[in-house]
UniProtKB/TrEMBL annotation:
Domain NADPH-dependent FMN reductase-like span(s) in chain numbering: 7-148
Protein name in the entry: NADPH-dependent FMN reductase
Organism: Methylobacterium nodulans (strain LMG 21967 / CNCM I-2342 / ORS 2060)
Source organism superkingdom: Bacteria
SUPFAM superfamilies: Flavoproteins
A cellular component term, taken from the record's GO annotations: cytosol
GO molecular function: FMN binding; oxidoreductase activity
UniProt signal peptide: none
PANTHER family: CHROMATE REDUCTASE, NAD(P)H-DEPENDENT FMN REDUCTASE LOT6
Length: 192
């Protein structure tokens, strides 16, 4: 059954390689029949966090937040695409995620991390695991690290390395399993 899986890109940098990874993820999810809206903080021009979406009076949140909230409420899972900045996550990603809370609850997340080097952003993924759990969308056990992202994906997100589709296939199989399981449980209600 089709899932709704927003893909949250964590970088706003000029000529960012993360866009390659995000495009790859969106295409891979869509090829499986899922809806994968891209959440790009550069395109959305999200404000720096002053008030969370839930802190605005009903109907008074900026339109960009209202639109994201509607997308997130439909979501069955999330994929976070993150670089590594100073052994942690990019500030734009933290800002993007922190605007919401309840909209994430009881939905799994998958972490796709990348870097220009050989570690594939895994140090950021470790920081991100703690944050995602606190937000109510715990990450699945597997990661999809993409080292040397500029050599692994072309600018349109097409894979340049044969290992990537194999690793991604297992990753998306696992994410789908968790998303379907939690969707089934949400249909019977949640603890609160």
């Amino acid at each position: 059954m089709a899932l709704v899986v927003p893909v949250i890109l964590g970088s706003v940098r000029h000529e960012r390689n993360g866009a390659r990874a995000a495009r790859y993820v969106v295409k891979a999810l869509e090829a499986r029949g899922h809806e994968a809206p891209l959440v790009d903080p550069a395109a959305l021009a999200l404000p720096l966090l002053d008030r969370m979406y839930k802190e605005y009076p009903a109907g008074e949140a900026p339109e960009v937040l209202e639109s994201l909230a509607a997308t997130y409420r439909r979501a069955d899972a999330f994929v976070i695409v993150s670089a590594e900045y100073n052994h942690s996550i990019p500030p734009a990603l933290s800002n993007t995620l922190d605007h919401f809370l309840e909209e994430y609850f009881w939905r799994p997340s998958g972490i796709v991390c990348y870097s220009a080097g050989r570690y594939g952003g895994v140090r950021a993924a470790m920081q991100l695991r703690a944050m995602l759990g606190e937000l109510g969308m715990p990450s699945i056990p597997s990661l999809l690290p993409i080292p040397e992202v500029h050599k692994a994906l072309d600018p349109d997100g097409a894979p340049l390395q044969p290992w990537l589709d194999t690793s991604a296939g297992r990753f998306f199989d696992e994410l789908t399993w968790y998303a379907e399981a939690l969707r089934a449980r949400r249909s019977h209600g949640t603890p609160y």
